[in-house]
Amino acid sequence: MMLLLHLGYQNYINTDRITTVLKSGSAPITNAIHEARRDGRLIDCTFGRRTRSVIFTDSGHVVLSATLPESLGERWENGGKKK
């Protein structure tokens, strides 16, 4: 069964494809975002808000979310839904 994780602003991701969820801000994460943008692998789900989570997928895509990693973790534990 496919579990979808709510990223915020009516955006969802298949949890089977997620490899890592990290907090944004460090230089290596910023470099990964720039590289993904350059290569066309970046998916921005922030709707212009501040990026708080960076999600890496098994397909090499990088997904940006305005939701904190801690909140995404709680949603994942609750079946993907926002409380």
Walk me through this protein's architecture:
The chain is an alpha+beta fold and 83 residues long. The protein has a domain at 17-71. It is built from two helices and six strands. The strands form two sheets. The chain has a four-stranded mixed beta sheet. Strand 5 and strand 6 (62-65) form a beta hairpin. The radius of gyration is 12 Å and the shape is globular. It starts with a strand and ends in a 6-residue tail after the last helix. 20% of the residues are buried. The mean pLDDT is 94.
Helix and strand topology:
Layout: E1 4-8, E2 11-14, E3 18-23, H1 27-39, E4 42-44, E5 53-57, E6 62-65, H2 69-77
Parallel strand pairs: 4-6
Antiparallel strand pairs: 1-2, 3-5, 5-6
Brief synopsis:
By secondary structure, this protein is an alpha+beta fold. It has helices spanning 27-39, 69-77, and strands at residues 4-8, 11-14, 18-23, 42-44, 53-57, 62-65. Helices cover 27% and strands 33% of the residues.
